[in-house]
Structures are given as structure tokens and as C-alpha cells.
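Lab notebook, page 48
Experiment: co-folding of the full assembly
Goal: obtain a model of how the components sit together before planning crosslinking
Operator: M.T.
Materials (sequences as entered):
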Amino acid sequence: MRFAALADRDWRTGWAFAAPGLLTLAIVMGLPLVYAALISVSSLTLLKPMLQPFTGFKNFAIVMSDPLFWDALWLTIKYSVITVAGEFVLGLGVALMLNRAVTMKPVYFAILTIPMAMSPVSVALIWRMLLQPNLGIANQLLESLGLPRVDWLGDADFALWTMAAIDIWQQTSFVILILAAGLASLPRDPYEAAEVDGASPLQQFWYITLPMLRPVAAIAVIIQLINEFRTYDLPYILTKGGPGNSTEVLSFFAYRRAFLGLHLNEGAAAAFVLLLIVLGLTILFFATLERRR
Amino acid sequence: MQFKCSLKAALLGATLLAAAGSAQAQNVTLRALMEDVPETQIIEKLLPEFEKEAGIKVEFEKIGYGDMHDKLVAQLVSPESYYNLLEVDFLWAGEFPAAGWLEDLNPYIAKSGFDLKPFIPSMLDLLGQTKDATPILPMYNYSMGLIYRTDLLNDPKIKADYKAKTGKDLALPATLADYVALSAFFKANTPVVGAAMQGQRGDPNAMEFSNYLFAVGGAYLDADRKVVLNSPQGLTALKLYAENVQKGAQQGALSATLDDTMRLMCAGDTFSMVTYWWMLPQLDNAEKCPKVAGKLALSVMPGGHGESGGWGWGIPKNTSDESKAAAWKFIEWVQGKKISVARAMEGHAPVRSDVFEDAAVLKKYPFYKTGLEVVASGKSFPIFAYSAQYEDVLGAQLSLAAGGQAKPEDALKAAADGLTQLLNK
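Observation: model returned without errors.
Model output:
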């Protein structure tokens, strides 16, 4: 009886402490989300800002009947896979190097964290200047090496890859930090046993490091997939979705619908499709965490 | 006695209220989101004069064109706009009044006795004036023409080479086809490219292409507002536009904006650019652009017609009455003859005919005569509620065609269909 009273009091205290945070979250995240959901099933446009009448899933149907939506979705998947793969391979390589006993490790970590600390808008603006085809330093460097100039952002065949490379440059640091932390936490015993058994470093990496690192790697990959699916800043600053539609990812498509097309309802519907995809990835993320436990 | 005391108290109260009201008006700070272009800087220099005269502080927040629409819309749909004075592009002159975001300026004009007669009528039309309302008062025009290098056009070596290769005399092109051919010649045979082009999808390439369309006699809409973009003239314009991007323009033209083209021209790396006529003094400036200063001239777009555009002043509905009154006071001041002439002396692109014809202005800037021709011969992009979206729709198709990802015929059809759909919305 006394135990039950104590538990009840703890429960109340817990809620009392959590309430301010939960309330703030509900206001700054929950309310806009509910409002966006209402907009996505309404006739609201910037020219007619009324939530009535309720239109059901008409806006979703309009958005999904636009071939550009499917192009943008496919491009988003392609872009996310390219960037996450690049970030993972590079990140794993650097994390493995830093996992060895190297001097000045904190200095390397500090340098590697710099891109991550920069805002994507600043990153995009800096790279836009560096890659300017006529006056930018990248092409001047290529020319000095006797190589032809490249139209980094103005050629439809290059633009997406250029954007992905910039993204990889910025985001790899995050993957390095997660993987380096994962590597540092791996137990030493299996490696000692493997060395006694005569396993080569490659075999140790393949049969010990990778399997043991898998849960951490999965988390890094899923977090980055979620990030990349939401990419908006880079195409906005670098290309405005062009040339043609070659860099129009789903978040940019939603922006165009909402703010250039003035159809907030259709923009919200497109954003909700994106949200569902990200939600799926988030569920996958937590399922991975559970499996790890 | 008691009555006298009450009367005194009432008078004192009224005086205090009046003083408070006046102080309130003086305390208004006008905030405007402005495009970061020379015209804004010209006005900015004159602001202390207004602040001294009217006692109203004015703050300009300067950003690039590409970000302005979204920032303004976010404020205009909010309960109270942070910006209480608006700089409105003609492309939004359909959308903003249709959404009910702007005050009608007619009551302010009538109350203050502001004279609209000197304003060029086409500028008032461009910015959505109807017989019932004036939602936006013209601020400056940005009609487009051709800025080119006179030194290259008169270079004996280039002249001889051109004659040998084409059999023609090198001269300022009279038609769009001649211009594109000349542009390709420069890129292939000289160290400079023929044209600095702003081919980034959206506003940059939509505005640029409009010059090509009007230059060959094409149009977006006919007199009955029926879409006529998909025409033989439209196709010629698009093919020539794509040809110039591919054969005459700088590398990276499809991702270039106005800033990129300005830098290229300033660096002396191009023969020409289709741009806003008032950019001439910015480029023909020995301090800023020593490589090209004294070597530039302006002409009407080859073919005789270019794109016409303009900015205006508006007052948002979602701001206080004090702010509205202060905003009108500023608009009246900045667009009056005296300040307009002062601005023109610094390079302002006038919207009043009396400023274009002012002797002092013409003495300082003889090219304003050509400027008036550019403005007078300009034609407008379609203005309606979805003009900004149409720029994006058209821009995507132009980008696809110029980049070789779509046939000009298909891109033109898609652009015309897009316009029809948006007009029918």
C-alpha cells in the first residue's frame, strides 16, 4: 500500500518535470503538424486562405498525378542513396584510420567537425562561388593542371552529382563521429583471439569489426537517410531545381507548390508524403535500436 | 468651478492624447524588404533627408531577388506584417492585389493631392492600375536592352576576320538571328564569349527568354488574353535562345543569374549581355569595372522589342494606420519630381516622363534617350495571380530545351499549356 503511494507520487513528480518540455514540444511541433495536416485536406491557398471546404484527399491526388512529383521522388531516393553511400564509405574509412593509435587525434576530430558546424546555406553559397565555371577556383585549378573546365552546376549530367558531393563533404563528419565512437566501444577480446588464430587484418575487419559495428552503422545510415530525404537548402541555393528538373528533390517540389504556386494545400500534401517516408525510416531506426538492445 | 476644472482636465487630456498621437506617428519606423540593386542604394543615400524632413525613420533590409517573394508572402499572410512599406515587383502585381494584401492607394493620392499625370502610363498599367484602384505606385522601371562592347565591335582585326568568315560587315545586329550568329562568332573566334546569359531556371531565364520572344514578334497572350506562345515566332525564339546558350554563351550559363552575368561583363570576358538598361552606368565605371569602362553602349533589343518590367511601392493591409500614413508620406516623397530627379542624377531608372526629359539628367546621362526608347518599346510578361509560378513553369521548360534535354517544340508546347492551365485556375 505504502509502495503503491510512493510509486504514485513518483509518477506525478515525473509528469510534473516532463510537462514543460512536453508542452513546448506540443506547441512548437505538434500544433504546426496538425495545422499542416488540416491544410493538406482543405482548399486553402495563399489567394484564398480558408480551411473550408474539406476536400478529402483531393490535394494528394492532384500532387500524385503530376509526373514531376514522381520524378522528384525518384530523384530524392537516388540522391539520398548516393550521398549516404558516399558518406558511409568515406566516414568508415576515416573512422578506421582515427581508431588506430594516432597522435593529435583531438585535433583531427576538431577539424573534421568544422563542416558539420556550418549551416547548409553557408556551405552552398561558398561552394557556389568555388564552382563558378568562369571565375571559380575549382575550374582555375583544373585548367592549371591542363584539364578542361567543368560546368559543375549548369550541366544536367553533372548538377546532381555536384550537389551530392557538396552534401557528402559536409555530412561525412557526422558519420565519422558516430562510427569512431562505435569502433572505440568494440571489445578487444575477439581481436586478440583472432590474432592468436592467425587472422589477417582484412579478415579481422570483415569477420569481426563489420558484424560488431553493424548496429551503430545502421543507426548512422538511417539518421543520414532521414536527413538526406529532407534536403532543401542545397538545391534552393545552388540550382533552384535546375537545369531543367535535374535537381528538383521532393522537398523543393513541395516548396514550389506552396510558395510559387501559392497552393499551400498541395504543398502540405507533398510534404506529408515526404513525412510518411521519413516516418517509415524513423520507425526502422527505432526498430534497429531495439534489436541492438 | 467644478465645471471649469473638468473642462481644464478634458483639455489637458486631449492635448496629451494629441501629443501622444503625433509622437506615435513620429515613432513609426518604416521597414521595407528591398532588392539589393543599385536603385535601392541610390534611395538609401537619400534617406537621411527624408528622416530629417518627416521625422520618420526608414530601414531597408536588402536581399537577392530570388528570396524576396517568399519572405514577403510569409509576412503578408501573417496577422501583422513586419514590413510596413512594400517594394513590389510587377510580376506580383496580379497576385498581391488578388490576394487582398495591398491597400488601394487612390484614397491616399486623393487626400494628399499627389499628381499622377507625369507617370508613364504603361508603367501604371504594368503595375496593375485599374480605373477603380491603384494598388502599386511605380518606383523604377527595368526594361531590358542590349549592352555591348563598342571596342570589340570596332576592332579592325575582328572586323576583318568577321568579313572573311561571313562575307558581311561587322555591325550591331538588327535582328535576333543576326545577334545569335554574332554571339557564336565571338565565342568561336575571339578570347571572349558572345553573350553573358542568365539561364538559371526561374526568374532569370524566363525574363531573358522574354526578350528573345518579343524580338522576333512573338507574344505570350493576344489582345483577348488567349495563349499564343506556341507559335512559329515562339519556336524561332526558343531555338535561337537554346542556340545562344550552347554556342554563344559562357560555360555555366544554365546555372547563371544576373550577378554572374554582371561579373562576367565587368571582367571583360563577354561581348554582350541582354540586361536591364540602367546597368550601363554600373558597368561603365572605371572604379568598379576598369576593363570595360568607356567601351560599352546600350541599344534596344535587336528586333526592336525587349522585356519591360518595373518595381513599385505598396502598403500592406496588415499593418497599423500610423504605419500606413507614414508609408504613404515616404512614397509621396520618394516618387515626387524633386527626389526622382535627384535619384536620376545618381542613375535611377525613371518612371516619370518629366524626369526622362529633365535637361540636367540628359546632360549627365545622354544614354537616357536610348533608355526611354528601350522603355517605350518594351513588352510585358503576362501579369496575373500566378505570374511567379509561371516564371518557374516556363523557366523549367527553357532550361530543358537549352540544355538539350527536351526538343524545343515539346518544351514550347509544355510552356504554353502551363500558361493556359494557370490562367484558367
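Interpretation: The longest helix of chain A spans residues 2-40.
Next step: discuss with group before ordering constructs.
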